[in-house]
Amino acid sequence: MTAVPQNETVTAVVSRAGGPLDGPNSLVDTRIPAPGAPTGHDLLVKVQAVSVNPVDVKVRASGNRGDKDRILGWDASGTVVAVGEDVTLFRPGDEVFYAGAIERSGSYSARQLVDERIVGPKPSSLTHAQAAALPLTGITAWEALFDKLGLTQNSSGTLLVLGGAGGVGSILIQLAKELTSATVIATASRSESREWALSLGADAVVDHSSDDLAHQILAVAPGGVDWVFTPQSKGRIPLFTEIVRPFGEIVAIDDERDLDLFALKGKAISWHWELMFTRPRFGYDLEAQHRALASISELVDAGRIRTTMTKMLGPIGAEALREAHQILETGHAVGKIVVANEV
């Protein structure tokens, strides 16, 4: 364990009131007491870049019900400053990237404590900004493809990726093309997002805003698709019953509570939920996320996959983070938006 100066403060951006972005206290620059010396499996990390995810926007928009400043942020890249007594995977000076845990203080802070078992070694070929785009979406995609759908290098069916130009879709397409033998159909509604999905390796792109989406999908996969990844399931169950083959599988990451999945029974279609915060929340097989991030780092450094960062803002502060939240709220973001101190 490395000593940390006492009575130190660090810069942070907090959600003081939450709610709409135009509220003056939705995101606020402040100083907070520095995290204490790490203990156990914790690392103390100097945060150098963060990326913004839908969960950031969702938590901020829901308001500050605890009446306390909340530090958001569930993606970071930075440098280890100090380590707890049980740490074995990293040491001070190591560059790391991670998504953290929903119950702990987030990455919109100059210093953050995070469990080493959900942290990966930053790809050496990327800047901190480029690396910060990958952890949350990378873990989500990894767990969806390999833990939930159980795909392998020999999986040769057809995978439909709804929202192929989104944060998760952008890394999921790459992992599917590099680590499985699946044909990937992505959905996109604009020329910019269509071109992005194709550049990531999608074999075909169809328009999810079209009334004939099912026809477009079945034109590419006449027998139906084997697997579906969906970040937006509301109103999609009739589509899934039509385009998924018998005994096919669907993995979803959205929060739609009122889905009537009974229609899937006729084809014996399996439904999976994926939530990358489940492991840290329940302390379940934490090192699986370390291993996933380490594998993603290796794939990046081998040139097999690339960062999904498409826009960088900075430096880290309320102004840049407010802009990132605003872009994400439009629903038209392609890839990932990063806020970094490299600007």
The largest pleated sheet is described as: 7 strands, mixed
Helical content, roughly?
25-40%
How many helices? The count is 10
Count of β-strands: 15
Poorly predicted runs are none
Overall radius of gyration: 20 Å
Shape: globular
Q: Estimate the mean pLDDT confidence.
A: 95
SSE class: alpha/beta
Topology pattern, helix = H, strand = E: EEEHEEEEHHEHEHEHEHEEHHEHE
Please report which band the strand proportion falls in: under 5%, 5-15%, 15-25%, 25-35%, 35-45% or over 45%. 15-25%
Q: What is the terminal separation in angstroms?
A: 32 Å
Label this structure with key terms.
343 residues, 28% helix, seven-stranded mixed β-sheet
Summarize the structure.
The protein has 343 residues and is α/β, with parallel strands linked by helices. It is 28% helix and 24% strand.
Layout of helices and strands, plus pairs?
Elements (H helix, E strand, L loop, with lengths): L8 E6 L13 E6 L8 E11 L1 H8 L14 E8 L11 E4 L12 E5 L3 E3 L6 H5 L2 H14 L9 E4 L5 H13 L3 E5 L3 H9 L4 E3 L6 H8 L4 E6 L6 H7 E9 L17 E4 L4 H5 L4 H15 L7 E5 L4 H12 L6 E5 L3
Parallel strand pairs: 8-9, 8-11, 9-10, 11-12, 12-13, 14-15
Antiparallel strand pairs: 1-2, 3-4, 3-6, 3-15, 4-5, 5-7
Helix pairs in contact: 3-4, 3-9
